[in-house]
Amino acid sequence: MGKILDGKSLANLRAQKLKKEVEILKQDGINPLFCVINIGDDPASKVYVKTKKRRAQEMGIEQKIYQLPSTESEESVLNLIDKLNQDPSVHGIMVQMPTPEQINVNHLLERIDPEKDVDGLTPTNIGHLWQSDHFVEPATAIGIMKLLEHYKINVAGKNVAIIGRSNIVGKPLAALMLEKDASVSVLHSKTKSLSTYTRMADIIIVAAGQENLLTSEMVKKGAVVIDVGINRVEGHLVGDVDFKQVLSKARWITPVPGGVGPLTVELLMEQVVKLTRRAHGIK
Amino acid sequence: MGKILDGKSLANLRAQKLKKEVEILKQDGINPLFCVINIGDDPASKVYVKTKKRRAQEMGIEQKIYQLPSTESEESVLNLIDKLNQDPSVHGIMVQMPTPEQINVNHLLERIDPEKDVDGLTPTNIGHLWQSDHFVEPATAIGIMKLLEHYKINVAGKNVAIIGRSNIVGKPLAALMLEKDASVSVLHSKTKSLSTYTRMADIIIVAAGQENLLTSEMVKKGAVVIDVGINRVEGHLVGDVDFKQVLSKARWITPVPGGVGPLTVELLMEQVVKLTRRAHGIK
């Protein structure tokens, strides 16, 4: 029977430390400020933005939301980013995805000052990540690494299978896993036989957005399974893993909800604080 | 019996086209200029720099070599890069690796204007590569993709094993292979069982710098084998693949020399010309 990798508890533990750090910064007159640009009316985006805002408040971090209409032009968003880049009171900027059709999200990301890039998604910071010389990382990917570290699950020399090749999870996680000496396979919808890879994997990360994608036949006994999926099924949230079945075979497994999700939000907050410290030259 | 992926012939074929492109640019008064910074006395580096210079001359591309002493300070090299960045007659800049101890090569790469980054190794261009939105790529990696393309070897849905995780070959190649829908495993010295991966691979790329690393038992019948290694053994150049044995099992294989090497130099020249065209706003 597998044990639970409790992301929620770890997030809360880290949050306590973070809250104190923010208090100390504030005593020095430094107020971390984090700006979120949300374009359009995507309901899921609005929920995510609100969740972040609530968490930021709990941490003592100020979050400003720039809610723009779905018809906003790319140029106008770029101008907003320029303004936030230049404003020394702003420590972090992120663009909530997805963005409407008329906007090329890469153009927006490219414009964000890498020193204010809380999401670690500017080209420069992605480059730093792959060069193993980084100061900010995509939150979900680094959250997963912190979770494994917390439970003393060593990744060096392990066979790691990552299902999903998104810019925000799969690819940056591959970089972080390689940096820690894992053997990394990146798999996706065009992979012919997922199970060939997953059956030999010591650690499986599923970030595909498809319920029950990973079943117990695909998992080696004793494997570590990290479920990044969030799917809404009959009013419930479920991940990409057939949790009940896989639980009996895995050694460690993350639940959904309460696994990777809370850590993503926590790590985002930590990166706001990290960038605030950098901006003020505090180690 | 495997067939030869003739990198040398393909490089020569592409060079003919490139030469004509350069002629046309020159008729318009545009002279591609490529600057190589070589720090110290590494004998292999000097050979590589010379090889590039000869090839550039054949193409009609001017190459300037900045040969600096092994004691040169990082700051002084950064100043040189600034100067070349600002000089509109310079279209491409590259730093020959390895650099001496006192110099952090990442600092140099970070300083190169991404628009003059012929090697595709600045953080920004590495980021573009992983975002699938790139205009310049590390030469060896893109050379391998062009070789496969030339021989109509489709990578989509294929199992690709890359041995070696360098910033100049393994990692960028993983990005390009993923972009073309391959399932990609990145393996290295800490991988516990290379053959578990290589035996199920449709395409194997070996870039580890170790002679006879890939033996025929490790290769599936009918696989495509790309050898990026260059090792000097008793005065001969050999790759990382046990060529004779693997030849009988593979469907396609690159020789060493005459495989990936000539394509690397050719693609570097092509990127100088590409950056020259971009600088002058020519599509």
TrEMBL record, chains A, B:
Pathway: One-carbon metabolism; tetrahydrofolate interconversion. InterPro entries: Aminoacid_DH-like_N_sf, NAD(P)-bd_dom_sf, THF_DH/CycHdrlase, THF_DH/CycHdrlase_cat_dom, THF_DH/CycHdrlase_NAD-bd_dom. Residues 138-278 form the Tetrahydrofolate dehydrogenase/cyclohydrolase NAD(P)-binding domain. Signal peptide: none annotated. It holds the Pfam family THF_DHG_CYH. It catalyses: (6R)-5,10-methylene-5,6,7,8-tetrahydrofolate + NADP(+) = (6R)-5,10-methenyltetrahydrofolate + NADPH; (6R)-5,10-methenyltetrahydrofolate + H2O = (6R)-10-formyltetrahydrofolate + H(+). NADP(+) binds at residues 164-166, 230. Residues 5-119 form the Tetrahydrofolate dehydrogenase/cyclohydrolase catalytic domain. The keyword Hydrolase applies. Homodimer. Catalyzes the oxidation of 5,10-methylenetetrahydrofolate to 5,10-methenyltetrahydrofolate and then the hydrolysis of 5,10-methenyltetrahydrofolate to 10-formyltetrahydrofolate. Belongs to the tetrahydrofolate dehydrogenase/cyclohydrolase family. This is Bifunctional protein FolD.
